[in-house]
Records
---
Amino acid sequence: MSIEKLNSTRREFLKTSTGAIAAAALGGGGGPLVSLPLQAAEYAPGMTGGPLGFDGAERFQYNSSMSEGRAIDGIKALKAAGKAPKKLTVLLLDGTIDQIRKPFREGAMSPLDVWMRETGIEIEMIGGTPDDIFKKVMQDVTTGDGAFDVYTGPWNSTGDLVASGGAIDCSDFVKKYKPDWNDRERGVTDDAFEKLLYTYNNKNYMIGLDGDTLVWYYLRNLYEKPEVKEAFLKEAGRPIDVPNTWEEVDAISKFFTGKDFGNGKMYGNGCLMSRFWGLPTFYMRFASMAFPNYYFFNDEGNPNLNTDLGVQCAEEHVRSFEWSPPDALNFTFLEGWNSLWKLQVPQICTYTAIAKYGDGLKPDGTPKSKATGLMGSHNPVGRRFGDKINRRAVMYYSVTAWISPKSKNAEAAYLFLQWLSSTRTFTLIMASPTGFFDPFQQANFKEPLVAANYQPYAMKTIPYSIARSVPSLNFGGQTAMDNALDEELQAALTKQKTPRQAMDAAQGKWEQIIRRQRGKGIIEAIKASRATWPMGGDPA
Amino acid sequence: MRTPLRALVIRYAFVILACAVVIYPLLWMITMAFKPFPEWTTGTGMTWFPKQPTLQNFEFVIFGHAQGLVVSLDRGIVGPLAASLITSICGTALAVVTGTLSSYAVARFGIMSLLPLSVLQLRLFPPLAVMIPVMVMWAFIGAVDTWWGLSLIYGIVTLPFAFWLMKTFFDEVPVEIEDAARVSGCSYWRVFYRITLPIVKPGLATCALFVFILNWSDYLLALLLTQKNWVTLPIYMSTLTSPMGGQMYGMKAALGLIAAIPPVVFGLLIQKHLVRGLTFGALKQ
Amino acid sequence: MTDATAETITDTPAEPASAKANRRSRGYWAGVAHDSRKLGFWFVAPAVLLLLFIVVFPLAMQLYLSLTWWTPLDGVRWYRAYESFNSGDNYARLLTDGALWAALGRTVLLMAIAVPAQFLLGLGLAYLFMEQFVGRKFFYSILLTPMMIVPAVVGLIFFLLFQGTGPVNDTLRLPTSFAWLTDVHRAMLAVIIADTWQWTPLMFLILLAGMLGVPADQLTAGRLLGASNWQNFCKIVLPRMKSVIAIALVLRSVECFKIFDVIFVMTKGGPGVETETISLFLYKKTFADLDWSYVAAIGLTILFSLSLIAARGLSYAAKRKG
């Protein structure tokens, strides 16, 4: 598929997702859905599996002609052949376990209940933290212990894992059981994105469970306050509006820092700047430095870090830190979100899953945070090039599952993952008021329960951002490269180095890693990664 | 001569100051353990004492979930607590027994004069410098994520500590006492078991306490050698984050309090020996 | 103490006359009990076994890996590392690796500040506790508590204390923008404070034990000769404590060199690499960079250098004793 076509399909994706907004509006943001039967104790006609016990359950039910149904049938066949295990052990992010294990609402069936009911195979879920989970995976892979059937971890690390022989190729299973990831109506929108999430080196080494694209959220009501409008106009010489470019973001950050609009002293920059969490913030800024993209590597596969544009980006990144809250260098995305909910910062750009903890009402009717009802979400920002803006977001982390080569139940593990990641089950997971998995499938954005959870305003911006996402590093050596850049950025942020010194040092480290991995296809991987970047620009 | 009163005032002033410095962080941890979620971080004004004290943090770490919290954990405290206790105790037993026997042999029978240096070397370098082969080896013998695998490495890394501590104690026991017993017909074993060991009992208790604390405190070895079944308390604590509020400081503080109980109880149990055990080494100066 | 010893002796029954006969009937083990060489052999055997177990294979593997470029990313098992044999390049790299030497420098800096600080504070406290006073036992128990707290928890407590909006800035009346853990210089200071908080009690305990070991009659004699407490302390107590002081300093230095938990929880080595000590450096190389052959080379080098130092130190100590 050509890149032009890719972008047009991505844009179509946006059109369809507006349907979700309408549906969500109908649903009344979490209230009872109007036109649905009161109780669903039985499967809808023609359906053979799926959740029961809540209004709208039929939207998540399936039969043998659907992806989930095929997975369940596969398990049944394994059982009949005596090849099914009693238990599968899965290494998961702590924050995602409840999404699978707990029902989204009192009385409803949780995804795990459904699986247990239909297969009887126990799923043992072991938790890990986002920044440490991949160490656990590598530990298991390299020491040959084989404690897990399924690993999950950052999508970026797939290259490292595959290079170390830590993931099996599921291509045959995919052919055999036909998951619905590639359903353009319900799954992901285009080939390139599908390749990115589910394949490495054109083989199905991984199964995407997450859509970790950075998305902008902001305090909508704050931007609408008369005193804010007036003060901003006076200071910046133009009316305040949601930003379209990094320049505008920085102007807003600068404006709010130190001001008090009734909720205490504010800080302007809510973007994450800390170790590990701040790295995608930098990548995102970096990607839009040139039109249509500023790649992390040039055509020959050499890093672009210490070019003039690279250094300029680092300088901007470091300067924006002046407007960050104190302790921002210790924040995880959770502390970052917390500062938004305390109305301490006007915006944040990070993973979407946490938004649902701060906006909306608790079951007892009280607001989830001070920011409830005040929030909005806006499109990714970029830079102005003539009459166009190259809005760019970045895909980073994105929880991904791999099957351990040491698993004795690879097929059963695959079937569990297919069932879990198929559009009906995954949409049910997205209805959960908790958890780290973010929505990314078409079906997610069309589902009123998801819209009620993630808020209608985000049903448009999330897919819009996904369509403009550049992939971060995802090839063997990535962990070392990300780590090297991260360290240098932190050194620049804490004024140990100038941005140029930091970029020079990072460039050197990257070149060294590439040299060492040269014989192992790293250049090819870099070029392949370049081909998956979005190419279009939006009208300014 | 200075007035004793002035000296006394100065002494108390310094002692109380020192205690205050010790208590300051502890107090923050203790009150944190009873604070509800909104009071964990200090972004919106800090308070030393919980405005709305709660036992929710303890409930959560003990059962893995708590009333009124949307988040829960993959496990409660029971497993990690048991894992910590079992591996620390077994590791301590291993280190103390082998350390006592070998240090006695070196101190009295004069064999293996290289042993003191060798065990010292074992304690000298950072474990991370050799963890890769150890991980490989542990996986090879099937010891990763087992109670005995962790106990074994605990026993090994704390052996030098036990060896050297016990050696100083044995060095202080007058040889004449043992010689007297030998003359009256006791075997070497009997002299060791019935005479020397009871003399160094306070030292032994002190040694056991220190080794236990070392094992109980371990973070790194358990991080690298456990996966799921035998995860210990410190590792369990480090995984306590929730999508709701980030790092679960209240729960971590509650866990920290609970984790302080075994060493404190152990310390109290042997308090009588502790003072004697420590003065022991300096006895013959 | 002598009382207890005397007691134990009288408590021990003399060996009955039939013991010899018994011994013969019990065979090999009875013989062992009477043969110091044999008994000694069995006494050291378990410890030696443990030592060999942990030393032989890991050393061999480290040596082997350190001579190759192998990393888990190669996708072959470690025993096939010979395929990327590099004739000692890792060792050459180690000599010129600025990051490694910087980490080592930071570790030494930390030791150079933390250990003397803990020593002086411990010594001062021990001096205060030398004599009996009301509440001594109570204060003594309080002062020992930090030792009982798991280092990872200590790291967490100090992480919270040193937040810009945390209690330390509040108590010291500093602005919330006064960063500790994210400031280049103060981050290390914060780590040193945490380590000192936790381990001064151990210093105190050891040094107090050493002081109490000084015979009371010598102190009384000194006082009769007109010496003040302070003179007594300097002239009589300190010289007698030399070996205790040496033990305490060595013990803390060794543990301080290996410091990991507290820093890992407090700063993860940050900001930048400002608190990255040798253990954190190795951790990063092992798990983030997956540079295992290099870690092996560093590990062996550290092991070799420290062993040399330890051997010199021990022989020096032995000479002084003799």
---
Amino acid sequence: MDNIAGHKSSLTWAVHISVVLLVALWLFPTVGLFVSSFRTADQIASSGWWNAMFPTEQSLTLRTADPDAQVQQGGIYVIEGNLFAVEGREPAPVSTFGISSRDVSAFQPGDTAELRGGGAITIQANGDYRLESAEEITGSRGTRVFVSAEIPPEFTLRNYDTVLGQDVVQRLLMFVGAGLVLWGVARFVLSAQPPVVALGLPVVAGLALVVALAVGFGLSSGAAEGAQTTDDMGRAFLSTLTVTIPATIIPIVVAAFAAYALAWMDFPGRALLIAFVVGLLVVPLQLALIPLLKLHLSFGIGKGYLGVWLAHTGFGLPLAVYLLRNYMVGLPRDIIENARVDGATEFQIFTKIILPLSFPALASFAIFQFLWTWNDLLVAKVFLIDASGQTTVMTNQIVELLGTRGGNWEILATAAFVSIAVPLVVFFAMQRYLVRGLLAGSVK
Amino acid sequence: MHPALQGLLTIVIGVGACLSYFWASNQFLDRVLFPAKGPNAGRNINRANMIRPWLFLFPALFALSLYLAYPVFETIRLSLTDRVTQPDGTTVYHFVGLGNYIQMSGDPKFWEALWNNMLWLIVVPAMSTAFGLLAAQLTDRISWGNLAKSLIFMPMAISFVGAAVIWKLIYDARPPDAAQIGVLNAIYVSLTGNDPQQWLTVPFWNNFLLMVVLVWIQTGFAMVILSAALRGIPEETIEAAIVDGANPFQIFFKIKVPQIMPTIMVVWTTITLVVLKIFDIVFAMTNGQWGTQVLANYMFNQLFVTRDWGVGSASAMVIMLLVTPILVWNVRQARKEMR
């Protein structure tokens, strides 16, 4: 056995290293998006995101001060100042500079460059410049110079301002922080109360405070400078939420009753109905698009929220019934028989015993349905989004951005991350239930 | 009214209507139709209990039939007809027999989509299951395995569209003299010194670049399920193998894998179903250009771009046909369990 034990320890190292590699490989793409959403367009274009932690060599186009600023010094006209002060940029060490876009690194810091329009400019490594001219300097704007500078790593929330509206992230963080504080205090104060109050009330209070603050102070202080209306993810975020929540809750209610009947009531044809549900589990929803669209149009529902809620409910039901029935069948028979003997009606048994006991299964289906409806593109495109452009969801908004802003990675990455953030939070908070649901649905 | 408010109202009305339907119909059954008192109390209770399951089932059955069962038959019908708009603006459906299928089989894009779908069907389930099995086996043996699992599982929460953006950044190409910001080109340029490639336009191989996205998402799913199956293997079989001098690789391939074969099949078929319906990734990344068409995207194009409902329905039927074996197998498995 000795050699086996020895073998094992060297193998353990190999296992650790391979898992680290595997995890790194799987995380790498998402981290790239996350990091990119905090970089400026210049930074994204000039270096890969994996270099974000290091200073980058960037080419900047800057201007000297306006000719108004010129002063006369001993017969010549002079403008002096710092290039980085002009547009309020962070100072950075200049490595080369040029005066023509064809050769942007013609000169070293400290050199003097002859300008084509007459005069000469000297630029120092710290960005200080001195523009001299024998004639009076004319024109409405300052002289353009091209500078290569080492820009230190810098992260910005500007992209989020563009995509969501000015200051949204900061305010949201503040409001959620306040909500969390209230939640903590309420948990502490109410800790002696029964569990429903002690756990439930703090959550409700915290959420109510966040909503109240958001409504009271407003989430955004207006559109950010330079944002295009098509970049707006805030509205798409709200409509995704509007699609998702009813589409998650309604199928649960409908399916729970059906699952109870299929699990604990005896009637002819039960086995056949279960087979029916299992069969519908795999029917591709592509088949349903045209017939249902026809149906919705003929009923006058048309394209809109009602249609997309109904469609998501219908498509989510097979999995809901299947998961919940499988779970309910496993509940102990004694409890239900005893309740029946004690004179409880089926309705009471269902609401007072089965529903509370089935919480884990309800939670796992709720997560599935939430992720599926939040991430869906096809159903929304067919049943919700019409030609008017009034309704949209985030996935559709991103696809459109891929068309209109294909090269603007700062906008794309931020928009995508906004849409990914909520599912990720749900995923990490409720992973236990998700795994349980997967196992109940697949391993038989 | 603001849509968010409308949504809230719908939840309240929808859930309220559901609950009151269940409550009221039960009350009606027990109090009015078959009251459990009077001369026929016993008979009434039995009758009420015969009807009650159908009260519980009705909303779900109705929605299932209308939203999933009826469309199957309606799609079959539509795939055999042509939609014609008459001069007076009304639409009629002409029966054309197999005309739509014949028209579709003459379309090279359809064959491209079918061929690509077959490639997806082979590559994605195989790769996802293999990586999932590897990750499950490795993470089960280490102390921080659960953290590793949850990080590998994470892409599952990301939408196909989000994943498309993430991977487009990886495949991004910049002009040869600029810094490469896509990882793939950055590595490619620094290793070979060639000019950067527009990876998504490279015929044939771009299909695999799209598949990578789905493998990345589905591996976590495979890993979670296979890891549970691996833990369910009886210890004695492994101990016996160790005593007999099997090395770790033999234990894995000859003892563990055969015992979890049924679960591997389940994972494989589940991922197969996802692959057959794959739409968002292709739609967002290439929209079927450069030889990357797949069936679901072909169908979407027929329905909403070409507006040919006949051929669109016919291609939907092709997807249904490919799903049918799995449907039959699933139903038979479920019936076997019921007995």
